[in-house]
Amino acid sequence: MRINQFLCGISILLFLAACSKKNENKIDASRQEYPVLKIIKQEAVLESVYPATIKGQEDVEIRPRLEGFINAIYVDEGATVRKGQVLFKIDSPESEEKLSTAEAALNSAQAELNTAELNVERIRPLAEKNIISSTQLLTYENAYKTALARLKQSEATLKSAQATVSWINVTSPVDGVVGTVSFRIGSLVNKDDILTTVASTGNVFAYFSLSENELKDFLNKAQGKTQAEKIKNLPHVNLRLSDESLYSEKGKIQTISGIIDISTGSANFRAEFPNHQGKLRSGASGKVIIPEQIREAVIIPQKATFAQQDKILVYKLQGDSVKQTIVFVTELSDGKNYIVTDGLSDGDLIISDGIATLNDGKKISIKN
Hints:
This protein has about 375 residues and is an alpha+beta fold.
């Protein structure tokens, strides 16, 4: 009898245990599955992106050096020119007239000098023989010196006139690319007019700026004691063009302005990029990308985060439930991931996808 009661008790316990397990399986089956990401610190490159304006190494304004009418235009907009190449020809009758006058004055001065020299040579023997006084010889010698000075003055005037006439040909002072041509043949121009610009684009400069706080943080991270040392030790930078393509050549930051612009509250930077193929044009826009190597970075996908007011949060796995956790992040340039600067530790587990259906404290199952 006791044996039967004992066996019956065991059967009841087994039945209850089976029911409990069945109910537990039902509960597990009712929990939604989510993919989980384990936080592992790794090396990463953080890229800071700044809008930039591209300018030629030399943007030279081409102006006429004399007044006159444009007689010829030898180049077109966008043409590549060499240093010393003629760009425009100016018709300046006044300059040609001054040249003719200077040539005539030189010839006259030369004739006057020749006459004075002959007089000295003729009078000197007579003075030596006391036929005429030494005072008369001195008078002729002074006349010779005056004629010689007048000749030198005429030669200087002629050189000046020749230089002025040479200015009728307006040449390029640098190798580069021609900008907009502002005048046409027949236009009257003077020294105040800009005929065009020539941008020297063998190398180009990309100008960008950082705010005062960004500048302090930037210089604190850079290696070196002085600003010059820090600039020298900075990594090479990249340039993203207006079509979002990445320029093939890397650049180097050359200068950081020594003052903060009062109107903008920022400091200006200048990075230099090689442009041997002429792909970069002065006046174009782009974005300078400054890389920063981070040895122990926590990287998470943006889809694993959500915003709440002005904070970024993730769902951290604790046991079989999730907990909302605030994280501090910096966006990577790929637009898909964040670098977490605070809020997560090595080994933490977070939900990596499907977080729109989660809420704080919800129990979940881990998706294999």
